[in-house]
């Protein structure tokens, strides 16, 4: 699930780091657009995603990484589930991506994700508050 576009995201991250350094209130959102596989439930996805978030926040770069799932209420894409991970910085995102793909634990979690969902897109967003 998480490996589909990670290489291209690393390249974009280098460019993004230059623009983010000037924006103190910026955080990153990694958003995956997925569908549940037959026989799998949102609860199955919550279980692995919560497991990943707990693991990520125990790492040296962790502590402010959040994991969310979003499902449509009104949409042309009712079967879609968004996996949304928020990171406090580009450095935390890069460290997490490296640790996830570079560890046996991460690879085991990747296999669990792949049993539950098919993901078609992955985008890394820079988020800033407009109401401040």
By secondary-structure content and strand pairing, the structural class works out as alpha+beta
CATH class value: Alpha Beta
* Percentage beta strand: 25-35%
**Main β-sheet, spatial strand arrangement:** 2-3-1-4
Please state the overall shape, judged from the principal axes of the Cα atoms. globular
Instruction: Count all strands and give the number.
Output: 4
In the CATH hierarchy, what is the architecture at level 2? 2-Layer Sandwich
List unreliable stretches of 5+ residues: 4-23
From N to C, what is the helix and strand string? HEHEEHHE
Write a structural description.
- There is one protein chain.
- The longest helix is centred in the middle third of the chain and has 17 residues.
- About 15% of the residues have low confidence.
- This protein has a single domain, classed as Alpha-Beta Plaits (2-Layer Sandwich), CATH 3.30.70.100.
- The chain is built from four helices and four strands; from the N terminus they run H-E-H-E-E-H-H-E.
- Strands 2-3-1-4 form a four-stranded antiparallel beta sheet.
């Amino acid at each position: 699930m998480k490996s589909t576009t990670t290489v291209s995201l690393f390249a974009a991250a280098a460019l993004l780091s230059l623009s983010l350094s000037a924006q103190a209130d910026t955080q990153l959102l990694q958003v995956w657009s997925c569908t549940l596989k037959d026989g799998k439930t949102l609860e199955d996805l919550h279980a692995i995603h919560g497991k990943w978030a707990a693991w990520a926040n125990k790492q040296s770069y962790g502590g402010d990484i959040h994991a969310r799932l979003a499902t449509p209420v009104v949409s042309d894409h009712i079967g879609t589930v968004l996996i949304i991970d928020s990171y406090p910085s580009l450095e935390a995102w890069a460290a997490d991506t490296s640790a996830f793909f570079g560890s046996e634990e991460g690879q085991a979690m990747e296999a669990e994700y792949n049993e539950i969902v098919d993901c078609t897109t992955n985008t890394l967003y820079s988020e800033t508050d407009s109401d401040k």
